[in-house]
Amino acid sequence: LTHSGAIVGSDAIFDAALQRAGAVRVRSMVQMFAAIKCLSARYLPVGRRLAIISNGGGPAVLAADVLNELGLQLATLSTPDAEQLTTRLSPLA
Fold it and tell me: Succinyl-CoA synthetase-like flavodoxin domain location, by residue (predicted)?
């Protein structure tokens, strides 16, 4: 007998196959439900850039790390968008 994980093969090969198929890989139930919510939205994301808006530095850094792992680019907000956010955020932000 063998553990089923031992016969699967390389995780990198599996990732490549999923990426080629256009699949979204998740590693937890929370990620699965977040992916379902995003993918069922009326508007689908376009391109390889993503802006990160967070209520703290730690979560933003973690999100940027995942962004990098996924081969995506960190987007820069336009000046009008950044100014509009500034008016809605705490002065401590």
Answer: 2-39
CA 73 vs CA 6, 8, 51: distances in Å: 34, 31, 9
Per-position DSSP letters for the chain, written without gaps between them: ---GGGGT--HHHHHHHHHHHT----SSHHHHHHHHHHHTSSS---SSEE----SSHHHHHHHHHHHHHTT-EE----HHHHHHHHHHS-TT-
Looking at the whole model, is its pTM more than 0.85? no
As a dihedral over the C-alpha atoms of residue 6, residue 12, residue 14, residue 20, rounded to 10 degrees, the angle is: -170
Residue 63 burial (C-beta neighbours within 10 Å; 0-12, 13-18, 19+) = middle
Domain ranges of the chain: 1-44, 47-93
Average confidence (pLDDT) per 10 residues, the chain, 93 residues = 58 80 82 83 80 82 86 89 83 70
